[in-house]
Amino acid sequence: MATPPVNSLPIAYQAWTSLGVPDWLNKGDNAWQMVSATLVGIQSMPGLVILYGSIVKKKWAVNSAFMALYAFAAVIICWVAWAYKMSFGEELLPFWGKAGPALGQRFLIKQAGLPATPHYFRNGGGLETAEITPFYPMGTMVWFQCVFAAIAVVILAGSVLARMNFKAWMMFVPLWLTFSYTIGAFSLWGGGFLFHWGVMDYSGGYVIHLSSGIAGFTAAYWVGPRSKKDRERFPPNNVLLTLAGAGLLWMGWAGFNGGDPYAANTDSSMAVLNTNICAATSLLVWTWLDVIFFKKPSVIGAVQGMITGLVCITPGAGLVQGWAAIVMGVLSGSVPWFSMMVLGKKLKLFQMVDDTLAVFHTHAVAGLLGGILTGLFAEPRLCALFLPVTNSKGGVYGGPGGVQILKQIVGALFIIGWNLVVTSIICVVISFIVPLRMTEEELLIGDDAVHGEEAYALWGDGEKLSIYKDDTTHHGVVSSGATQVV
Asked: Membrane topology per the record (predicted)?
């Protein structure tokens, strides 16, 4: 039966359809943005939930997975209640937006015209030109940015697994989101001073990875180390599940970087391709370094190389050419490897601070490296698509390109300094209310004492019968005995 013409349908139905699908809505861009947001969300839940639950010792599987799950849920509520507008709303300070709810009809459906854009170009002290004009509802942008905020906190959790008091974690999540994450997001993405100055962070190398890596390392210092027994031996309880979680993380990165042009366009395709090129190159380089120096290829090491490649390309995914993505992959597979496998074993600082999953190396080091390399390799025409600042380009393209590297370094120093100070303040404040660290009994028993639940009905702590003298990889027990991943 033929569909009746629109003008013959009831007036109420016509009004509903015009509101649900207004003339300005680009359904293709909106669909891709929602798919991208879902892919990024899957990276945390279930991606990192699975990875955290399997990469740790058996007695910490439930607690580690639950810390990631709780953070994901808590961030969603805080984001729509006040944090989104602090990151992408009206300016309160040059580095911070005004708090407010992102709820209600005016945020879900734009009544007329185009939805507001989160990125702006300031000229002469006033907001003049929107960087982008996405043709989709504001609710799409709220959710897309929400899953980015969530994964930042989940990544941070990797530094304090297997000893942080869960009640302290419940307090830490909203405080860090409010007073740390929103600062970096507004400064670099939401119209803050670093964005206006021309610092480039295409998809979160600084806002997410550098900030969570530095904050995680700082929190690990204040919480204190794991038990002596756990630091000496901390075998993964399920390497195959670790690969499953890592796979979700890798494939989800298509939305992480591919969604940041805010449209299903050519730059989106380039960002996705560059992401996979860099990740694959980094994984191969890390594995070969393991073979050369330790005589064994490590699965855990390969996962680490994959992650450092994904992190490194993130600040420049849609700003660099394919050949630069390969170079960045070579460096992301070697520089963090050196910082973890060499400096991590020699420097007293890394011995003193128990960063459970080596988040500092895989995210802070790789994020900083990617940000600086973006300043070196950013292609001028691609820069113009992302950041409307005159003559923005990477150092290899000559002229004023070298200035971009300086801007990238200054931007990184701001993120590092802010997270060191604010994370420390948050931890100290929480310590006056509840202990940051679990009790000695909880540290000894693990999940059963903390949650009254265990991951597997199996014997032991995921230990295995030792047949060979050397039955651990160099990644299974390094420096402090941590399984270094994520």
From this structure: Multi-pass membrane protein
